[in-house]
Specification:
- It is a single chain.
- The termini are far apart.
- α2 crosses α7 and α8 crosses α9.
- The strands form five sheets. The chain has a three-stranded antiparallel sheet with strand order 1-5-4. Strands 2-3 form a two-stranded antiparallel ribbon. The protein has a two-stranded antiparallel ribbon with strand order 6-7.
- The chain contains eleven helices and eleven strands.
- It is of the alpha+beta class.
- A hairpin with a 5-residue loop joins β8 and β9.
Length: about 300
């Protein structure tokens, strides 16, 4: 029996399989990424709490002789077990290791892969269909996000998908859609570009804000950040049905039908939801980088085909 195994048994530590499952659940609860297992990191204590480890189990150390300098090196047993479990998940292609993740995000983190995401959903008894609405990061989705954000901005951008695509939802289509959603809401700092609302669920795993298509999917609008805008649920609906659109300088323009609204319509208490958009020149909030601003061709299409359509 190895020294590490003997220490593990002596301190009655969880098995590698149990720690792997706990790591997958923790990755899910942290939106797909967790940092390395350094001292003081929240995740180290969080998973220890999950297993109800006592102080002795949390502070037990492994000792080894560093022969080059002829000295004893001590490392926390619990940290070592976390690393071993994470490395095992990496070998199973359930997570990307910190070096691989760094190449993608410039952050040293463990990140769920699509296979790891599916395994976490299975452990939590959540249907895989929920992947379409949950904002959990995965390595494959992050690759799509990077591609969307880093793509050159074309002058003659066409926001409509010309090629006919199958109606069958393939894994690639799902990843593309989720990449679009993640890219858009992150570009707008998880805020509604119209009202600035920024809030997530109590468990912090679902954002209220949505990635809205300017040219909608029903009209073959592309899953492309240049055809996207970040909107809260209410403003998303109002934009989709044509209560407002955007001018070429990203100023809101409101439907003249707002003047004909009945007194009891469009109110949140005493707040005039639609008419408030008409009270002053109101530009939407935009991403930091102009390269990913909504494209004028997509906005023009929305004005002509939804906003001004009679």
């Amino acid at each position: 029996m190895s020294y590490e195994r003997r220490m593990r048994d002596e301190h009655r530590m969880p098995s590698n399989e149990e720690i792997e499952d706990a790591l997958l659940v923790s990755l899910f609860n942290h939106n797909g990424t967790i940092k390395e297992f350094a001292s003081g990191e929240e995740i180290v204590n969080e998973i220890a709490e999950y297993f109800q480890l006592n102080e002795e189990q949390r502070t037990a150390v492994l000792e080894r002789i560093y022969r080059k300098e002829n000295r004893i090196v001590k490392s926390p047993l619990w940290h070592r077990l976390l690393y071993r479990a994470a490395n095992s998940l990496s070998n199973k292609k359930f997570v990307s290791n910190p070096s691989s993740t760094f190449n993608l995000t410039h952050r040293k983190e463990w990140m769920l892969t699509e296979n790891g995401y599916d395994e976490a959903l299975k452990l939590l008894k959540i249907p895989t269909e929920q992947k379409e609405v949950l904002p959990i990061r995965s390595y494959e989705v992050q690759k799509v996000v990077n591609k969307l954000i880093e793509a050159p901005r074309p002058a003659n951008y066409h926001p409509i998908q010309d090629k006919r695509t199958t109606t069958t939802v393939t894994k690639e289509i799902s990843i593309r859609k989720r990449g679009f959603r993640q890219a858009v809401i992150e570009a707008y700092d998880f805020k509604c570009s119209v009202c600035g609302l920024k809030i997530n669920s109590p468990k912090r795993n679902i954002w209220e804000v949505e990635a809205a298509h300017i040219v909608p999917h029903s009209s073959k609008g592309k899953d492309d950040i240049l055809n996207g805008i970040s909107l809260c649920h209410l403003h998303h609906w109002a934009f989709d049905v044509g209560w407002f659109s955007l001018l070429d300088d990203y100023t809101l323009t409101v439907s003249p039908e707002a003047d004909n609204l009945k007194d009891e319509f469009g109110k949140l208490g005493n707040y005039e939801f639609i008419k408030s958009l008409m009270q002053s020149v109101h530009k939407i909030s935009l991403p930091i980088h102009s390269n990913i601003y909504p494209h004028m061709n997509a906005i023009k299409w929305h004005r002509e085909n939804i906003f001004n359509k009679r």
